[in-house]
Specification:
5 helices, 24% helix, globular, two-stranded antiparallel sheet, seven-stranded mixed sheet, 200 residues
């Protein structure tokens, strides 16, 4: 995936892009999958995203171009998952900064939700800018032995995040991260899938 409008100096690895997605966050969403993980949760639902596959490298700007092409009157949010997005902090920050710039120009509220298998303490230490840059963060390892979704934590950091993700029933849904375990779009996601990436 390439973009003629942006330099590739801000580069990232990309597993795939999906829209519309309705099972991993509030409403109708765009989903950005970032491959590569060094957390290795024992009960991970998405082991196929663990590999740092350099063949999937692309410019961050190309992902932003894709977002701009989506129907602005239908999108409620963007979800970033993987893999472990925090394993490439520079690329993640460039992506989040670009998404935040893009969504400020929209006429409807679009939230940004990020999944990480790291603890909030580690994320705050390594990426102190992260929590203030997203509306909601699902953190901590997924551990089926510790109650599965109950082992995860939803951290909201904006009024929009509070409105959409603080309610207990919905928080339980997003911590399950169920669709991250599906290597193919579900029946509800009829949009295109972009990116290849190897499976484990």
């Amino acid at each position: 995936m390439h973009s003629s409008r942006h330099p590739d100096s801000a580069a990232m690895l990309l597993s795939r892009l999906r829209f519309p997605v309705v099972d991993i966050g509030y409403g109708m969403r765009a989903e950005v999958w970032l491959p590569g993980c060094r957390v290795f949760c024992r009960d991970c639902l998405a082991e196929h995203t663990w590999v740092f596959d350099e063949s999937t490298r692309c410019g961050v700007g190309a992902v932003l171009d894709w977002l701009r092409e989506l129907p602005a009157d239908r999108i409620d949010g963007v979800t970033i998952c993987g893999g472990e997005p925090s394993d490439r902090p520079a690329a993640l920050r460039a992506l989040i900064d670009g998404i935040n710039t893009w969504r400020t120009g929209l006429t409807r509220p679009v939230d940004l939700l990020l999944y990480s298998g790291r603890s909030t303490a580690v994320l705050d230490e390594r990426l102190p800018w992260l929590s203030a840059s997203v509306d909601a963060l699902v953190a901590e390892r997924f551990d089926a032995g510790a109650g599965g979704p109950a082992s995860r934590r939803v951290v909201v950091s904006s009024a929009l995040g509070m409105t959409r993700y603080a309610a207990a029933p919905f928080a339980a849904d997003v911590t399950s991260c169920d669709s991250c375990g599906r290597p193919a779009p579900s029946a509800d996601t009829t949009g295109r899938t972009v990116g290849t990436g190897r499976s484990r």
